[in-house]
Amino acid sequence: MMEYTPEQLLHNPFLNKGTAFTHAERDQYGLNGILPPAVQTLEQQAKQAYAQYQRKATALEKRIFLMEIFNENHVLFYKLFSQHVYEFMPIVYDPTIADTIENYSALFTNPQNATYLSIDEPEHIEEALKQSADGRDIRLIVVTDGEGILGIGDWGTQGVDIAVGKLMVYTAAAGIDPSQVLPVVLDAGTNNQELLKDDLYLGVRHERIYGEQYHHFVDQFVDTAEKLFPDLYLHFEDFGRSNAATILNRYKEKVTVFNDDIQGTGIIVLAGILGALNISHEKIADQVYMSFGAGTAGAGIASRICEEFVQQGMSPEEAKKHFYLVDKQGLLFDDMDDLTPEQKPFARKRSEFANADELTSLEAAVKAVHPTILVGTSTVPGTFTESIVKEMASATARPIIFPLSNPTKLAEAKAEDLIRWTDGQALVATGIPAEPVEYKGVSYEIGQANNALVYPGLGLGTIAATARLLTDGMISAAAHSLGGIVDPAQPGAAVLPPVSKLSEFSQTVAFATAKEAVAEKLNRTEIKDVKKAIDAVKWEPEYSPLADDVKVVKRGE
Ligand SMILES: NC(=O)c1ccc[n+]([C@@H]2O[C@H](COP(=O)([O-])OP(=O)(O)OC[C@H]3O[C@@H](n4cnc5c(N)ncnc54)[C@H](O)[C@@H]3O)[C@@H](O)[C@H]2O)c1
Ligand SMILES: O=C(O)C[C@H](O)C(=O)O
Ligand SMILES: [Mn+2]
After folding, report:
1. Which of 140, 405, 546, 556 has the fewest other C-beta atoms within 10 Å?
2. What family does this belong to (predicted)?
3. What pLDDT was estimated at residue 442?
């Protein structure tokens, strides 16, 4: 039984309906006279809020306004979000979320039901998770340690906003029940000197801790979360390059974990490449892949694409020969002593090139290799230059070029330039939303290769299937499920389905994922009908009667 006063009820975003509390509810819960007299519908509330939203001058003001709604009333927030998915995605999520992360402490008004865990006080982990869950049945956690936020680096505790934002997209896109989620930040310190010097900084004020103490802290969090919430799907976001893959590998065979930057990005890029090949009528086996920036995302994507070559019949040794990674050092060679474990399988031999020692830039590497696919996850803006792109286009009819670094200010190229420089031949997807490019009478739709197009459906499918693990098979099924939505024969067709259809195809992704989980016998409960299992966990932003265990105690009673 949960007890509230009428006043507390109005400030509980999971229960509050504001002016939509009916007369009967106002009588029952003591709300008469502490709300304006008129009773509104959800539609009226949404219309009024949207009108106010439109009056906000900047993207940041719009986001702050929407967060105020979220803090007060989840149903209203998600009703609005679902009515305006395309318009709100760049406001609630990337790129505007980057501004709120950089200014989180200064802008702070409300913890938004997040859990803040400090490496200095691991003894509070259990209590903090219990208190923020507040008796709710948590099925999904998005956790970050803030070290590698998008491409903007280390933001310590302020990174919690990426966990909050990713969860909002889960609900808006796939219908994950917002009362079953928890955003968590693991604050292990920060190396961001600006934050350490900032009086307003709300995080732990010391350098970031690595190594044994850090991993012990992560272990304690995972163990406690798994104990408290046995049906948990645990999503890791924006960990640093030295920890992200290590953490995923540590847990992926034991519990249901997902790393969005490694696996989510791998799925969306594979889907984008399959979409591009559908347009160009080329085979994957003929592609030569180059990654610019071979960190968490870059190496994760390469590994997913390489798996696809293998799945389509190539031997792993042969498949690897199609891959070239370029990072700060230039083209990565196997004699380098600073390669990450994830880069090593793709490092090349110097003997393959007459001028190996000169391949220290992207330009030199592109000239030497002539990739057919170029994916940017480098965090370095403007690095896909006109001369590099033209060099690539000189050797392949339909170059596949995905500048994926986020947010907008970090993208390796603009879609519009890529289309112009290649005379409309490039098959482009970007990390952030891009307007269609008008060029020589054709409107080129630009796909958004952002993991947000897949992680909501993947999560919904995995949760609905009660899957014990998230496997490569499920990941591959999710990637393949995005095909067939775009008409590849349309001039200027996008390589990925449009964000405006996000809610629809999230169901497609969920179905493919859940079906594979059941086929692999990973479900913890019996599932006869996958579609029904998904529908059963789906949440819609509609008001319903408050649960029987919600008890409102009026003052003086
Ligand atoms: N579109 C998406 O869905 C998506 C998903 C994940 C990451 N990303 C973006 O990809 C970028 C990288 O993210 P990450 O998590 O992999 O970060 P990361 O820090 O793990 O990797 C970045 C890599 O780029 C390399 N790099 C830095 N400067 C370079 C330079 N001058 N030349 C070549 N390489 C250089 C780094 O050494 C590192 O290996 C970010 O901007 C992020 O927003 C996009
Ligand atoms: O957050 C995003 O927009 C995608 C991705 O996870 C990233 O880190 O850039
Ligand atoms: Mn990310």
Report:
1. 556
2. Belongs to the malic enzymes family.
3. 98
- Report the nearest-CA residue for atom 25 of ligand 1: 293
- Return the SS3 of 257: strand
ipTM of predicted complex: 0.99
Residues, beta carbon < 5 Å, ion ligand 3: 238, 261
Give me 149's structure tokens: 């936020």
- Of the candidates 60, 3, 6, 56, the one whose C-alpha atom is nearest the C-alpha of residue 28 is 6
Per-residue pLDDT at 48 exceeds 90: yes
For residue 351, the SS3 value is helix
Whole-number pLDDT of residue 198:
98
Instruction: Identify the burial level of 1 via C-beta atoms within 10 angstroms of its C-beta, where 0-12 means exposed, 13-18 middle and 19 or more buried.
Output: exposed
Instruction: Kindly give the number of the ligand 2 atom that is closest to the alpha carbon of 93.
Output: 3
**Is 144 a pocket residue for ligand 1 (Cβ < 6 Å)?**
no
pLDDT tens, 176-222? Answer: 999 999 999 999 999 999 999 999 999 999 999 999 999 999 999 99
| 16 annotated ligand binder | no
Does residue 335 have a known ligand-binding role? no
Mean pLDDT throughout 43-49? 98
pLDDT at 1 (0 to 100) = 79
Report pLDDT digits (tens) over 197-206: 999 999 999 9
- Taking CA atoms only, the protein residue closest to ligand 1 atom 2 is 450
Strands (E), 246-379: 257-259, 289-292, 323-327, 330-331, 373-376
Q: In terms of Cα–Cα distance, which of 373, 315, 360, 346 is closest to 495?
A: 373
Strands (E), 35-121: 115-118
Q: Which two tokens stand for residue 63?
A: 């986001």
Indicate the domain borders of the chain. Answer: 94-255, 263-451, 453-490+497-537
What's the farthest any 2 CA atoms get from each other in the chain? 87
pLDDT of residue 403: 98
Same fold, 94-255 and 263-451: yes
CATH number belonging to domain 263-451: 3.40.50.720
Q: How far is the CA of 261 from the centre of ligand 2 (A)?
A: 7
482-509 b/e with 16+ CB inside 10 Å = b?
Answer: bbebbebeeebbbbbbbbeebbebbbbb
pLDDT band at 155 (very low <50, low <70, confident <90, very high): very high
Question: Does the beta carbon of 406 sit less than 6 angstroms from any atom of ligand 1?
Answer: yes
Q: DSSP assignment, residue 253?
A: T
Confidence of residue 2 (pLDDT cuts 50, 70, 90): confident
The reply to whether 261 sits in an annotated binding site is: yes
Q: Helix and strand tally (H, E) in the chain?
A: 23, 16
What distance in Å separates the CA atoms of residue 254 and residue 249, rounded to the nearest whole number? 10
Ligand 1 atom at minimum distance from 410 CA: 41
Residues 106/176, Cβ–Cβ less than 8 Å? no
Cα–ligand 3 centroid distance for 75 (angstroms): 26
Q: Which fold has domain 94-255?
A: Rossmann fold (3.40.50)
Residue type, 49: A
Return the DSSP state at 348.
B
